């Protein structure tokens, strides 16, 4: 199998519960991250759950989210030469559903809230084209919604667009803002932790959701970081999870390695998906044990920023790169005793300035993606 052609990571920016990239890396390094809370209304009862909210509140409405996207994209576009903007595409990966569906549910699903409803057909997909026009970007735009793998798959698609010569550069955005519908769904399935996400810990009790907006610019321009490649499949045992053996996850990790002409021993460290839910963690660690040796260095970022669903692909890679640029690989907090004793995520920050890194995203509906990024030594 021939090696998948890599593309370079030119720039990246984020906004999450811990602030911008610099603030987030500092908070993680000094173990001073914080979690907020949200109130859900379920069956007429108000329930408070932990939640990693953006510092600057973004309401779940069309105008607020568009403005937040515009602010982040403007920072990335400002660093792109005017002559290259028309050959730069914009892709958005998100799990947020269209607003007219949210409105329909709020107006029609609950007896005590029923009101007349007329669809406005306001879709998130319209953001991409509107923003591309505003910033003078290429007319090719796309929105991808594959649950937890949304922006990870958008990165793969962006790489394909560049290698196919359709565009020279792509801005890939990961977006997640608090959704009452989604949060209530996770809570109803008993997947929400009462305290904090404890990935791979024997006492884990669920995930904690989070908000985030992150962007990565891909292109051929020479840089230290590159997206080497990856693999994505859609394969699950049930609509919500993969099999506990993790075979579906094994496939994406092995094929990601093959596509990049790498072997498991070539991976410097792995960023696990690691939601903290019972079934997801078990499936992933079983899969890891079938691909890697116990000496594998691996970690999880969700205990710092929450599970940002559709944004997690871009957001977690950006934070990982930011940490490594600062000379360390973040430890996994809240994991005291691993569910598989041979495979324990690192419990201390580890010095790290370069290497080859695998990033896993295993989501609802059997959408599973593994990406491989690389930082060359100076």
What does this structure look like?
The protein has 378 residues and is of the alpha/beta class. It has a single domain (7-375), classed as Thiolase/Chalcone synthase (Peroxisomal Thiolase, Chain A, domain 1). 31% of the residues lie in helices and 24% in strands. The protein is built from eleven helices and 15 strands. The strands form three sheets. Strands 1, 2, 5, 6, 7, 8, 9, 10, 11, 14 and 15 form an eleven-stranded mixed sheet that branches. A two-stranded antiparallel ribbon has the order 3-4. It has a two-stranded antiparallel ribbon with strand order 12-13. Helix 9 (278-291) links the parallel strand 10 and strand 11. Helix 8 packs across helix 9 (278-291). It starts with 6 loop residues before the first strand and ends with a strand. The mean pLDDT is 91.
